[in-house]
Amino acid sequence: MEPATPMEISPRVLPPSDRWSPAPAVPAPVCRFENFLGAERAAALLEYAISRGEDFTAGTVLDPLTGQVSRKGRDSLVLPVTSRVFSAHLADCLPLVQEVLGHRGSLARSLTVLTAHGEGGHFGMHTDASRVPDVATALSAVYYLHRTPRGFGGGQLRLYDTVVDEGRARPGETYRTIEPEHDTIVFFPSGAFHEVVPSTCPSGRFSDHRFTLTTWISGGEPAAAPAARRSPVWQWLADAAEGTRPLHDAEEDHDGARPVALPPPGPGTRRGPSRT
Ligand SMILES: O=C(O)CCC(=O)C(=O)O
Ligand SMILES: [Fe+2]
Fold it and tell me: Going from the N-terminus, what domains does the chain have, and what CATH number goes with each?
């Protein structure tokens, strides 16, 4: 059969306009790994989280304007932790993650908490500006853990798009959904607006909660990644997140997490496909 000749769509059907809306909704860059720690380590970490059930406390949020710490918009349990092995594994993955996310600049330190979400657990739309010295250059990483079969419902992570409208960036209403699957991790810019939708936990047992090891990774100094070196998407995210930056420097993390230095990438460092 002869291929059809393309027909011009008449301007009577599709008239030109001088008022096109040039406001794209730009997805936040994200990098996801499956089997991040491997079955044995993931199972051990899950058992550890469950065994510390009594030590979790209610997670908090920080009001950027007043500096007030509260539980507004959040129902999560948190437990600050550190792990040299987890940090070293993160550090080995960062060169590849930075390539995928289009992140430039050095990353030097991280803060980590274990979290648990049960019946009604949620975390309203926010950026992670209160966790890092410079939200424009920091990365957030969320590693998920749960029992099999999964004892909770819901609890998806929504990563909101950024709308660029008349030269201004703002969080959009559209989003990508990340399923909190056991032994997976997602990395995304800390300035990206995100939300944990409500979870259910029919058994009510702590062991059936949705667990995470959540880490915020930042550069040594805000000046380490000057704005001029940022990719446009990172710049738009930074602009949209500006109003969420705390006005006052906090002495300590509002959930009690402590910064630790990231080790330099080791021999296990992952990189993208080589361009030879
Ligand atoms: O648990 C998640 O999926 C995300 C958690 C989060 O956004 C946070 O702790 O800041
Ligand atoms: Fe967050």
Answer: 25-261 (2.60.120.620)
